[in-house]
What we know:
By secondary structure, the chain is an alpha+beta fold. The chain contains 6 helices and 9 strands; from the N terminus they run ααααβαββββαββββ. This is Thioesterase domain-containing protein.
Amino acid sequence: MFGSRRVLQPRLRNLAIEVQQLSRFRPRRARQSSTVANAPTSQPSKWPRRLIYTGIFSGLGFATGRWVDGQISEPAEPGTDEDIARLEGIYREYENGLPIVRQLRSDPDYVESDVYGNYSEEDKIGRLTSGPLRGSRGLALQKVFWNEKEKKAISMVFLGSGLEGWPTVVHGGALGTVLDESLGRVAIRHLPERTGVTANLEIKYRAPVYSGNFYTFHAAIDEERSNGRKAYVTGEVRDPVGRLCAQASGLFVVPRKYKLREVGTEY
């Protein structure tokens, strides 16, 4: 019994030493891991990001509110201070903000002119497009670029909110009226008597035309089919980025049974 105890004691002492060594080592590792886990980490402040987001969404909200207000507000009456101010802004945009205008002006084959140059101010009031449809709410601006070599015209037209048939969308009849005049303007330049009437007009609407924007109305004579009393003209409408919105073709004739007043080329 005592012999076996003497044999076990050295083993127990060695085991105790090993346990003590392990106990010293394990807490140290635990303390180190806990220290690393609990050490505070520096994070960037979220306030600058929040301020940026607040500014962005506030700006978007303000811009959206202004846009909605402009869409639902009643169009300005022609001749009022509000109408004059809007017209001035539209003319500034035409002069400075439209790349196609700069492009056409730099091309010597195109000649720029106003519409209705053959009419007096009194006559203009009695016409649909220059009378009831005048002002920033209607056909606020119309300019024509004529190419004599190719017998075609490109008209720059601003379509106001008073021409809408559905909110923000220009009425198809209003668009057809401008197309009729745009094609007829080219036809009359072809007809020797400088006058004529619309015999047929066909329009294919391809995409919505939204109010409050400039659109280009293209028109060209079909010389192979046209003669001294008939003019066949094709045309199209494109939005500010060049997307096709409408296509049109028309036949304009000089009546044989009665005399028409000469309209001229700038009508």
